[in-house]
Specification:
Chains B, D: InterPro entries: ABC_BtuC-like (IPR037294), ABC_TroCD (IPR001626). The complex is a heteropentamer, with 1 copy of chain A (307 residues), 2 copies of chain B (269 residues) and 2 copies of chain C (231 residues). Chain A is of the alpha/beta class. Chain A has helices spanning 15-25, 48-56, 69-77, 90-102, 142-159, 164-191, 206-212, 231-243, 258-267, 282-286, 291-306, and strands at 9-12, 30-33, 59-62, 85-88, 196-202, 215-220, 248-251, 270-273. The longest helix of chain A has 28 residues, at 164-191. Chain B contains 12 helices and no strands. The chains are: A alpha/beta (307), B mainly alpha (269), C alpha/beta (231). Chains D and E meet through α8, α9 and α11 of D and β5 and α2 of E. The structure holds adenosine-5'-triphosphate (ATP) (2 copies), magnesium ion (MG) (2 copies) and zinc ion.
Chain lengths: 307, 269, 231, 269, 231
């Protein structure tokens, strides 16, 4: 049991780490997610109850990207020694990301974070220097998910040592599942002739494309930088779809899908969803969706897009 | 010239130009009255109302767009009502209504779980992503707005300039205030959905304020607003294509250039 | 035939009564001077006559022939339109609004009327000037021209002479007499000028919160006091 | 009572109450002048300026907060300048500045690579998440704002009521306009960072408009605004705790209730 | 000693000259009536005297003794403060602003002054009323009382009589004569009332775009025309 007695209380900010903790902690932890189903992290502001929950929990798990500014402020506001043990997941994967970057061919490694264009080759500019502004969507790569799950296991074991073997066991099983997922992704992406993904939307999948050596073109950078496409970008995407006969244009969840629609209208491509797992709608939660299930669905859609 | 021909070869740009020109014409014409009546921030304010409506719609299970468009129109009418004779000025009324709706929306979200809404969806539209249905809707509503504006031009002038006088000569000032409110509501509701609140706000404020730098007659200001609005829209679109800038932001920036030019010209005279 | 009938008219602002028990009947073609000290309810009466405020008691009736659209109104304080872009011409012709009926635009007749009144008030040279750039008296003249444009049977003026120069005042009074006598329009005018203002009138209504006097100008007791010259 | 004792046992709530009461008092006092000068939407408008500054900071590699706070203050001063004698009214000026900065910010983002800034981060603050440094900063600035407001009270009245008269009697109206602008800029810059633009906007507009429903003297309105603002802040915080609602939204909603009550009372009288 | 010296004063609005070559020297303790038709530049002159607009040419000098803070100013058209919450008392005492110096609040002396002027203008009963709820003439009186509060050596009034009832006008003129004679204040007053207004004055400045006449009131040619009564 935890230091405060009873099952350890664990609070996760958004869905991916919530799901990982659920898989590892099972019913031995008291787990809750701050962002209610369907809520957008941008319009989230914590209520006093939320803060009290954070303050009184045993383990608080968050990503630590740009969108988590409020988290840092809340943690800062706790007195020394009060507050929970915290786990900042972006720390658990940053090294990995660099390692992966080395192993990849430069031309396959696009940085869609600028004009909304994808740079197919020679994308040597920035990207690597901008560690401070890391793309926070680390969980979109199953390999990163493994690292995150491992970090969560460690943290759980440290707040609740009595159950560490239970966590260890669950984590091993879950890691196997993720490994399988990774293999399937790799097989799909290696097999297909096509390497280009076109997004008529924001692009939170940088870790995914980096991982599997995919190229991408997207309308908007990142996830939280809400802006609108330029005419040149949309024209570029249309040309791209036409020239390379791209069969599928992706959009992400919780989007108005308008840009993707526009490209599809103009080119006849099919519109499909690539779920970035930020957060789920109530229906999805009620249907018992998990990270692995969502990623498997993504895999299906990827297959269609790459063939 | 080549650039333009190239642009015209994309259907989505042709659509954006058609819809954009219609909507920006409406916004510019109504903008003159709105700016004079101290409703400059109405686009920004109503976008918050739209957010509140959306949140409420999802909370109660109603159709989001089916609810938010009429709510925005009703809010525009309410706004004009709120300021009628109560001594609350336009901008304060906009502030009241918009902060209240935002607060209500945020509360609704926090009470009912399972909403995917984002205030920012209302700030930035996707001006370039219009379906045929969007085009038809906006052309039809804009045409109606333009026609009504033209027919009521003299009455709108009189009611904006001196409501008491208009009322004393037997003009139903309340009715024409409603007409202005309804036209505004429709233009903003449609424009906001297609072009986003940022751009609609800009299209309402800039042409009118710019034209007032140089023109002294109501007619001059109205005509110049229309001209400024149409030219900045086109120039902004071309700029966005040529320089790869976001479309809405480019249009606003071209408008800003017009404003600075007119202000400088007004100084010199 | 009465142009205007007030019966037991009272008006209040937020519970405080500003006007009490005004009761008179003005024959068509009359020239009524409304007089009284500051705050005696003159402007309140005018607003009630025009339906701009709701009486708290009593009724106002206009002659059937004269619809609201035939009234030329000149307010006491035009809300300061510090930034409104409108030329003098646009302001004056907007007086014809009531006469538009279902037409959307002004016709030749409207334009001719507007031009005539611009000339009458000595505004012809200023017609393309912006209203916001006028001097106080020039604004007053513009609003008067607008009221004249609107008048078709009835003119209601709240202190039209305030701020006009001596010569324009003269011109205005003789103009009002003409409109009243030759065109047979009923004129209701609030004035503090008991010398010339009241002299032009056929009837006087003296207010002081309530109605102190109504009747022919010649019989008004105040006339003896001021009417013969300066006090 | 138990509820309050329970609330007081949480340090973060005590901090939120301290800072919030100070800032909301400043906002309410300045709000009276701002609403009367047609600057009701200044909170909303400056939040867009803050976004533009943030985008520019990241694009040029400057420190985001170090740039955005002074920029917001400068924008407030500029705003007052822009409306001075140019015939551009407060709300139109806010619209011009806010849409321009938004457009510039969006453009800056699209030109420089990899920025994750969000306008909406400015809409909703985290009122409950204040560090000791925040508390010190806000208490110090609020105290300064309050003191200056008190010392300049009569001059602020005169300059707001009739600037020409004040100037004719030798009062340096420009200077006091600058004082108002600077105090506003500081209050909004600090308040926005801690409480978000939604709440700051509400705290500026609501108490003043509410008080004007009932009070006829400037002093009455100022005092009542302060009282309304403080009580709604506290009530909103308690409501938020008891009902589990977002704090900022609860406070705005309590303000709305006050407004409706005062408006009803004003009607009855 | 001259209270006011204008030398070759010109003023323009956006390139259009409204006032040209005004050149005079007003002795301290004089009572100057500024007259002229509408749009002749009277208000423009006043604004230039007070530094509210910048002359396009020429200079204005005030007597050294009288700082800006000793001037009581009453504008022609107060910007309509349709919604401003201010009581009559608050408005009137704000006239003492220039006298505050470094003090943050009004003292007993300021309050006494304000009360005196409220009574003088017959506003005592109205002192807790909101300015926005006043009738036109009541507003005019309030602004006059404010100007009197501010005056310490100099009063500058732009058509103070417009909108006042006959009795208050009388009261105002005699008050101005008192302030001028007994307290020795210099008074500059724009007026269209050539009968009573100009009669009170010691000096007359007649404008018509340029300066048509400046000199003692008795020698003014216009006096013959209007001064002896109605035209
Ligand atoms: N803000 C302004 N912009 C442009 N022109 C103006 C402005 N104010 C006044 N004028 C013009 O300057 C001239 C002089 O105006 P001014 O107000 O000084 O006249 P005045 O003598 O005070 O007249 P009145 O008796 O009507 O008050 C007029 O022709 C007027 O139209
Ligand atoms: N909007 C208002 N709210 C409250 N009271 C008002 C309002 N307007 C006028 N009053 C009051 O009603 C009374 C009558 O005002 P009214 O304007 O009718 O006077 P008036 O006879 O026109 O005076 P004046 O000669 O000064 O124009 C005055 O005591 C005034 O203070
Ligand atoms: Mg009156
Ligand atoms: Mg004048
Ligand atoms: Zn994201």
């Amino acid at each position: 049991a935890s230091e405060r007695g009873g099952r350890p209380k664990v609070v996760a900010t958004i869905f991916p780490q919530y799901d990982f903790a659920r898989a590892i902690g099972g019913d031995r932890i008291e787990l809750s997610m701050l962002l209610k189903p369907g809520m957008d992290s941008h319009s989230y502001s914590p209520s006093p109850q939320d803060i009290i929950n954070i303050q009184n929990c045993d383990l608080f798990i968050y990503i630590g990207g740009e969108n988590d500014h409020w988290v840092e402020k809340i943690l800062d506001s706790f007195d020394e020694g009060k507050g929970p043990k915290t786990l900042k997941l972006i720390d658990s994967v940053s090294a990995v990301e660099e390692e992966l970057a080395e192993g990849m061919q430069e031309e396959d490694h696009g940085h869609g974070h600028d004009h909304g264009h994808a740079h197919e080759d020679g994308a040597e500019e920035d990207g690597h220097e901008h560690e401070a502004e890391y793309d926070e969507h680390i969980w979109t790569s199953p390999r990163n998910a493994e690292k995150m799950a491992a970090a969560i296991k460690e943290a759980l074991a440290s707040v609740d040592p009595e159950n560490s073997s239970f966590y260890e066991e669950n984590a091993r099983a879950y890691a196997a599942e993720l490994e399988k997922l990774d293999e399937d992704f790799r097989r799909t992406t290696d097999g297909g002739g096509r390497r280009l993904l076109v997004f008529g939307d924001r692009f939170p999948f940088r870790y995914l494309t980096d991982e599997y050596g995919l190229k991408y073109a997207a309308a908007f950078p990142g996830c939280s930088a809400e802006s609108e496409a330029s005419a040149a970008t949309v024209a570029y995407l249309i040309d791209k779809v036409r020239k390379e006969n791209v069969p599928v244009v992706f959009h992400i969840e919780m989007s108005d899908e308008k840009t993707a629609d526009a490209i599809c209208r103009e080119t006849g491509a099919k519109k499909m969803l690539l779920h970035s797992c930020h957060n789920l709608s109530r229906e999805e939660i009620e249907e018992g969706a998990t990270y692995v299930a969502l990623m498997r669905k993504n895999l299906e859609n990827l297959k269609e897009a790459l063939n | 010239m080549d650039l333009i021909a190239e642009m015209l070869s994309y259907k989505f740009l042709v659509r954006a130009a058609t819809v954009g020109l219609m909507v920006s014409l409406c916004a510019a014409l109504l903008g003159v009255s709105l700016v004079l009546k101290r409703y400059s921030m109405i686009g920004d304010g109503l976008s918050h109302v739209g957010f509140g409506a959306l949140a409420a719609a999802v909370a109660t299970g109603a159709s989001p767009l089916g609810l938010s468009i009429p709510v925005v129109i009703v809010a525009a009418v309410l706004l004009m009502r709120l300021t009628d004779g109560s001594g609350i000025k336009g901008d304060a009324a906009i502030g009241l209504i918009s902060t209240s709706s935002l607060a209500a929306g945020v509360t609704a979200i926090s009470l009912s779980s399972g909403i995917n809404t984002d205030v920012c969806n209302y700030m930035f539209g996707s001006i370039l992503a219009m379906s045929k249905g969007d085009v038809r809707l906006s052309v039809a509503t804009s045409a109606a707005v333009l026609l009504l504006f033209l027919l009521c031009y003299n009455r709108i002038f009189a009611v904006t300039f001196d409501e008491n006088f208009a009322r004393a000569t037997g003009v139903n000032a309340g009715r024409y205030n409603m007409v202005i409110a309804a036209l505004t509501g429709v233009t903003i509701a449609v424009g906001m959905r297609l072009m986003g609140a940022l751009l609609i706000s800009g299209l309402i404020i800039f042409p009118a304020v710019t034209s007032m730098r140089l023109f002294k007659s109501f007619r001059g200001v109205v005509l110049s607003s229309a001209a400024v609005s149409l030219s900045s829209y086109l120039a902004g679109l071309v700029l966005s294509y040529a320089a790869g800038l976001p479309a809405g932001a480019s249009i606003v920036l071209v408008n800003l250039v017009f404003f600075l030019a007119f202000a400088a010209a007004g100084r010199i005279r | 035939m009465a142009a205007l009938v007030c019966r037991g008219l009272c008006a209040a602002y937020g519970g405080r009564e500003a006007l009490h028990g005004v009761d008179f009947e003005l024959p068509a073609g009359a020239f009524l001077a409304v007089v009284g000290p500051n705050g005696s309810g003159k402007s309140t009466l005018i607003k009630a006559l025009l339906g701009l405020i709701k009486p708290s008691a009593g009724t106002v009736k206009l002659e059937e022939g004269v619809g609201r659209s035939g009234i030329g109104y000149m307010p006491q304080q035009s809300e300061s339109r510090g930034d409104f872009p409108a030329t003098v011409y646009e302001t004056v012709i907007s007086g014809r609004l009531g006469r538009l009926g279902l037409r959307p635009f002004y016709g030749r007749q409207d334009r001719r009327e507007a031009e005539k009144n611009l000339r009458l008030m000595g505004l012809w040279e200023l017609r393309t000037r912006a209203f916001r750039e006028l001097s106080g008296g020039q604004r007053q003249r513009t609003l008067l021209a607008r009221a004249l444009c609107a008048a078709d049977g009835m003119l209601v003026l709240d202190e039209p002479a305030a701020g006009l120069d001596a010569e324009t005042q003269e011109r205005m009074y003789s103009l009002l007499r003409d409109v009243n006598k030759k065109e047979g329009a009923t004129v209701v005018m609030v004035t503090h000028d008991l010398v010339r203002g009241a002299a032009a009138a056929t009837h006087v209504l003296e207010l002081d919160g309530g109605q102190k006097y109504f009747g022919e100008a010649g019989l008004w007791p105040g006339r003896a006091q001021y009417g013969s010259g300066e006090k």
